[in-house]
Amino acid sequence: MTSMLENMETGDIDGILWSVRGMDHLFPKTLQTRSGQVYRIRDLFDKKEGQDILFLEWAPQVAILHHPSTQLFLTHGGAGSVYEALYKGVPIVVFPFFGDQPAAAITAEENGYGRWMKKDDQDQATKAVQEVLHSIQPWCPAWC
């Protein structure tokens, strides 16, 4: 989340749409970006601050991936999410948790359609988003 906020502050992205499915309790109470800005997560969830940030219980993933304004897709790296992003031609940033998800992150990097966002390195996480935005262009698969 911090890396996404930092990229909003620099103007690299202009909005965040995040599906959390009842996992908001896993977020810290506050986040501080490198600029020194402190964000109260509850305010973001309650839409009190950050009008360009929307947290949803559920989001129509394929429709979002198909939208022309979608520049990147931050995903845990599950097979379904990766396939849908590839099908729609949207570069990915993979934040893996377990199982085959780290392999999906490695594959995305090796094949040039995404980056691995490391959990414990905030600078690398912010850079992963910037690299996808500035180095990997959305593509149009043959069927689009």
UniProtKB/TrEMBL annotation:
Q: Quick check: keyword Transferase in the entry?
A: yes
Q: Which InterPro entries match?
A: UDP-glycosyltransferase, UDP_glucos_trans, UDP_glycos_trans_CS
Keywords in UniProt for this one?
Glycosyltransferase, Transferase
Give one GO molecular function term.
UDP-glycosyltransferase activity
Q: Which residues form a coiled coil?
A: none
Gene3D superfamilies, per this entry? Glycogen Phosphorylase B
Q: Give the family this protein belongs to, as stated in its UniProt record.
A: Belongs to the UDP-glycosyltransferase family.
UniProt-recorded name of the protein? UDP-glycosyltransferases domain-containing protein
Q: Which organism is it from?
A: Rhizopus delemar
Q: Tell me the organism's taxonomic lineage.
A: Eukaryota, Fungi, Fungi incertae sedis, Mucoromycota, Mucoromycotina
